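INFO batch 0412 | record 1 of 1 | parsing
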Amino acid sequence: MSCRKSECKRRLVFFAFLVLFYSGFLLSSRFLAYAGEQPAVSLSVSEKTVHSGGGIAFTATLSAPAQGDISVAVTGGSKDFSISIPRGETSGTLTVRAGQYKERSSETYSVAAGSDYAAGEKSSVKVSVLPKPRLSFYAEKYTANPGAKLSVNLWCLNASEMTIPLKVTLRQSDGRTVESFEFSDKKKSYNYKYTFPEDWEAPFYLYMYNETTGKKAAQIPVKVMDTNRMKGIYSVETQEKKIAISFDCGFANKYTQYILDTLDEYNIKCTFFVTGVFVSDHSDMLKEIHKRGHEIGNHTARHRSLPKLSEEDVYKEVKSVNDTIYKKLGVTPTVMRPPYGSGNFNVHSTVRMAGCEVVYWSHDSLDWDPDRTANEIIRRSTTDIKNGSIVLFHNSAPKTKQTLRKILDKYKKMGYKIVPVSELIYRNYFTIDKMGVQRLKSGYKQVSPSDLMSDYTPVINVSGASAEGEPAVSLELNAVYSSKSQVMSKKTISKIKKDYSLMKVTYDCGDTIAAPVKKGDRIGTATFSYGSDVKFTAELTAASDIEPYQPPVEKPAVISPSDTEEKKRWGMDIPHSLEYILDGAAVLLLAVISMIIFLIKRKRK
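INFO prediction complete | emitting tokens
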């Protein structure tokens, strides 16, 4: 009997030892997983040789799965960065752009020390960076005729150093890609026959686009000798009852403030043609004109007669003012008025190359002449006015206060809408006749969004506007508020009116309607686009009441102070209590099984 008791004791001790051993194994492995050796990080790259500014894909790899979200710091190269590795994953990837270098260089990247990882044996990489490509056109400018072939020469001056191909696209000033090329140590230049478009718009230039960096690399202006635009614009042929009034600002600033206040009273926007001298001497007033919502036009740098200057000087007279205004206001003038109303075909072509359309006037008020009476100035400014007229005034004319309000009252009585010059003229698809009248080309028409869409009201389905898993809320394109008419071919207009699906409607709601919206409320705007150059803007309104979308909110795990203290004491992360519960259950199950086996064996004996 005593033998049996001693045997039982030995067995109990043995099974107890097994349970304790297994429990210790689980707990120690768990402890080592969280508080033991840090996982080692190795670093690798997608390419060992890249172009300056090119993308490098870095991959950080852990020797063991991450026990929590890890941010691996990498130093070196053009800038420091971090690669994220989510919990449970072994790697993370991030693309970083290489620096820009004039000569061939290299960049070394290394894993920096971290609290939850260690640098492995392969924690540093070296990348060879090719020099910044020197792309160039083999000319300072091009001269072209619409519809004709233009020989374009593209060069990469340091192509011999390009050990890997460099992709470059030739593009027009409107961003449209013309052709793609690859420069390398075996190909340093191209000669491309480019067909100049007939629907060009000033300014027109060609540029080389570096596809590696996503930036312009070289640009060249094009002087267009368009015989259909030999003259500047004196007036516009249009069916719309609108005219443009303009003020030339040469040197003085006598009545500009009065003019601005008066225009505000009548809710009128117009164009102020300013010289470089005015921009320099009256900078605050220039900003005030722009702030009030008026258009800034170019009146050359020093108000010199342009036909007497060389082509280079004409270009500088216009381009310098455009550049200065852009620096001060962030806008670039698109219309230019020649001093003294003096110009010719060569001047007009050069001014367009510099970035502006040339605009004269159909009605000269002669308000600058002190010998003119107020009644004569009013008569000259309002007689024979018709759709598309352009009227010339000056900001420092002696009788401005006596005449301006009376002139504006007459325009209002005649029913004309006054707009800035750039809203009156056409930007493309036009010709200018011998009298300076700007007309649309045959086969084209000016059309507004409301004219085009007629009574058609499309419904737009916007994803993300409703709760997850439910159909998107319908939004109606309701009141078209963009009054700007667009030029379209009559063939295109006919196609759209027969099939409205040709119009592409896009609208990204984002968080705009993540709130209750009542039926009929304005939501935002949508852009209608057809082809590459026709865009309309319209209002979006709710077709039905929209309930607020409340995304599910995940409640953060509650950690007690004792858990926090335990975490600090053991030096490990303990948000994973489920794992410890499972470990305890496994130990308990083992103990139960062991006890059952022990009892069965005892019964047999």
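INFO post-check: The longest helix spans residues 2-35.
INFO record closed
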